[in-house]
Specification:
The complex is a heterodimer of chains A (about 450) and B (about 325). Chain A is of the alpha/beta class and about 450 residues long. Helices cover about 60% and strands about 5% of the residues of chain A. Chain B is globular. The chains are: A alpha/beta (about 450), B alpha/beta (about 325).
Amino acid sequence: MIGIIIRREYLTRVRRRAFLLGTLLGPVIVAAVMGVAIWAGVESEKPIKVMVVDRGGLVTHWDSVRQAWLPNCPDCFPERAGLDYRFSDQPMGEEDFLASDFGAMLEFDDGVLQHGKVLMYYDEVPSMTAQNRLQRDLSEAIERFRVKEESGLDYATYKRLKTDVALVGQDVVTRAGEANGRAAIGFAFSLLLFLQITMYGMQVMRGVVEEKSNRIVEVIISSVKPWEWMAGKVIGIGLVGLTQILGFILLGTAAVALGGNWLESSGALAPGGMMGLEDPAVGLDWQTWVASQSELSFLLDVNWGWMIVATVFFYVVGFGLYAALFAAVGASVEQESDAQYLLMPVMAPLTASYVLASMALQNPEGTLAVVGSMVPFTAPVMMLMRLPVGVPFWQLAVSGLGTLVMAWILLVLAGRIYRTGLLMYGKRPTLREMFRWLFYKG
Amino acid sequence: METGNRGKAIEIRNVVKEYAGHRALKGVSLEVGEGNVFGLLGPNGAGKTTLIRMLTGITAPDSGHIRFFGEPWNRSHIRSVGYLPEERGLYKSMRVGEQALYLARLRGLSREEAQRRLRMWFERLEVDGWWNREVADLSKGMAQKIQFIASVVHEPRLLILDEPLSGFDPINAQRIREAVLDIRKEWGATVLLSTHDMGSVEELCDEVALLNHGEVVLAGPVAQLREEARGGRIELRYRGNAIGFADALGASAQLISSRAAEDPSLQVAVVELAPGVALPEWIHRISGVVELYSVAPHATAMRDIFIRAVQTPQP
């Protein structure tokens, strides 16, 4: 009997065009926005011609043969697409600059050795990428000058001696590495879970309200027990949300694979390509490229398979828990507008779990995150945020089992409210009355 | 109409139900003969819906017993019950056939069987062109037919119809009445009919029970109730002077009512003979005064019985 109800609840929703559009277009829109941003960044990269005014002659010299100022270290100012250097010891006047085809003028004198600052004149701000390159090129040139002048070492020796330490995180409990980026990935899953539970939980409520206002209730509860009906509805609608999550995962995986291959074949990963790689490796595959990027390598530390399993599990228990509440609210009112005051106590913990997850993002192993991820009402959303950072097994067990048990209790209690509420028409029940319904006999 | 002597479809004994301090049923007892059409009558709030909800498993008595075809009532019996509630509706966003199929499957039919029977019923009630249409496109009467079909498609032993004819035009109402009588013939269904439409009660019901304030105030076969209500009254149609007729009655009979018949040349009078007056002699005497056209027992309308029973103060 429940199977028939699940089937109806599931099929009538999955067949709707809005569901298909939402599932397909959701990630496509996200991908499109990101794609447009990258594309716009690449396209807006206008070629720029830069005048380097070295008033103190630190990094340039006068070449009498070519009758021009040239860099002492030509390698420091490599030829690149979109960036063209000229050198001088005298700045141009403002009017001359504006009339020229130079996009920027960098001016410095000996003072740069003390304060490290270089003036940049421009008529339009150069892109961040261009600025980064200018900064890098000039820093290296000045560094070479200083190494030579102040230490007498040759630059290659200096480079070998120079030391930068990096902090590499290592969680002694979970043996996992760098946490912050992975917490952000977890948060993305939290957000997905929050949205799915809210959206499909509301659908459970709307479904029940619709049945009450349709007056189909009495026909159906003369065929099936109210709890069977509620269970069928919760499971059916829950499966719709789960289908969508799996759809997102599938599309996401396909998009990453396609995108990665596209990056490889477009040559963007090659040296001097769009991604600004300085490494000499040519023809990297994209996973290796990701691993080589210190900002992105955490992506490969995330156990994606485990994340997906956990997302499905916490969606199931989290949805069960909240759907029970949404169903009870739906059964207690006749119109959706009446549901507002009863929705407050349902939406509050759900929204809180999202807000707390975003707060705990800064410190995914702090008390807030740990406690929040084990309290059944906030556990599903918050645990997903913590999961990629590494969670001790006992906490995971407490969180999962706790939510499961709470979901079961609430489904049983909601079933009682559902049974009584369904046939109540006319008056808006108070919370106290709904509490009393818990103890009504059949 | 036959009054079933085969057995009892439903036996209700001292059933009590209370809701938050309000006694909806105060020890109701009644019996419904198997294969009968049983009218459950009573003003709004009399407890009819509560009683029906017990028979459909939606609610249970606080005390008392219900037997269903000889067995103590339990939830498994709801498979043998068809129910058309007064408050009825359909999912607006579903297709008609899909919807009927869903409701039929909830009644325990397999998909194939449900489909086969539904096709037959759709044809029978002339809604066969509507299988693939949206429910939202249905007129009220059409929707009612679908709901009626959904309540009978699993061939229930007990069919409960709560105001089944509201919303139907006279032609379709007649079609449903005929369908109800056919169902009884086809698979011997017992029908529990709750309605305020006394015309349907007179046409369809073998037995009735009248509920008022949660108690049965009147119950029995329709024919017997009408006979009892009739007392010694007779209805006469005659041609002649109404005043002369009234004078001629004298002490032998009391004139209850008098009016012109559909044929304006005739008068209709209802009289109650005085005790000890023999009907043949009385007719003979009156026919000397007016031209008697017909003499018949005066059948009391169920409507009058209903009103009288409800307005009589209960001890």
